[in-house]
Amino acid sequence: MTHVRLRHPYLDHPAPIPFAHRGGAADGLENTAAAFHRAAEAGYRYFETDVHATADGKLVAFHDATLDRVTDGRGKIGELPWSRVREARVAGTEPLPLFEELLEEFPDARWNVDIKAERALHPLVDLIARRGLWDRVCVGSFSEGRVARAQNIAGPRLATSYGVRGVVGLRLRSYAIPAALRVGAVAAQVPETQAGIRVVDRRFVRTAHERGLQVHVWTVNEPQRMEALLDLGVDGIMTDRIDILRTVLDRRGAWA
Fold it and tell me: φ, ψ for residue 238 (rounded to 5)?
């Protein structure tokens, strides 16, 4: 199966790319330094994470808008100062990391970053520019407008993926239905299905590849699904079960 090799250096990895989703969230320590250390020890170099900005502008690697679900803290991150957010513990044990701290702690890692809130957009792009991280970070969001704004600010140096509107447009294009698509994205990062509707099939993958886009699928934790997607020619898989994905890729001779 042919995979797309794009010009952007972020994607300089033999396909398929294994992504540790939130560092490998299967044990409940998602988006913590402990999770990312475990992924690195398992041989992963592509990490997926999310960012929110605190009330005082600190960029936190965290998925939810509130602390409530996975930490012993309470409240909306965007309404709290970092001095309060830093006191929370994931699963009661692990601190929330600043994204900049993770960049320093894992200097060889590449990061797929979902901008979860508008207020995190400028701090993230500023951080990428200030530290010259163009080769190490790909920016995504469910909001196509948000990721387009990030790309407009940063220019072609920034690797971006499609938001929901871009994915819908690509799906329509796969059926030869005209649809506008943002120029400059390097990947379509998609669920295998959405609301019971299949997103990723051979037609979708072929259309993406014809446009020079890679296809990365989230969040895939079952080995049979991983195998089926790899057979379709997807270029990357994001998983909570980093042990299972490594086993599948090893068995296929596809672990780089």
Answer: -105, 130
Decide if 186 contacts 9 (C-beta within 8 A): no
Domain-wise residue ranges, the chain: 17-251
Which tokens sit at 92? Answer: 């009661």
Choosing from 8, 21, 52, 216, the catalytic residue is 21
Q: Using 70 as the pLDDT threshold, list the residues of the chain that sit under it.
A: 1-7
Query: 214: helix, coil or strand?
Result: strand
Contacts 24+ apart (CB under 8 A), 127-134: 127/59, 127/99, 127/100, 127/103, 128/154, 128/158, 129/154, 131/100, 131/103, 133/103, 134/9, 134/10, 134/158, 134/159
| Tokens representing residue 227 in the block | 């195998």
**According to CATH, what is the number of the domain 17-251?**
3.20.20.190
- Give the pLDDT confidence of 213-240 residue by residue, as tens digits: 999 999 999 999 999 999 999 999 999 9
DSSP letters, 135-204, are TTEEEE-S-HHHHHHHHHHH-TTSEEB--HHHHHHHHHHHTT------TT--EEEEESEETTEE--SHHH
Q: Is 13 a catalytic residue?
A: no
| Residue that has been written with the tokens 């079952």 in this structure | 222
pTM over 0.90: yes
CB 221 within 8 A of CB 193: no
The candidate with the shortest Cα–Cα distance to 208, out of 239, 159, 165, 167, is 167
Find tokens 């294994």 and name the residue: 18
Which among 13, 63, 122, 209 is annotated as catalytic?
Answer: 63
Q: Using CA atoms, how far apart are residues 138 and 113, in angstroms rounded to an integer?
A: 6
Is 21 annotated in the active site?
yes
Coil, helix or strand for 116?
coil
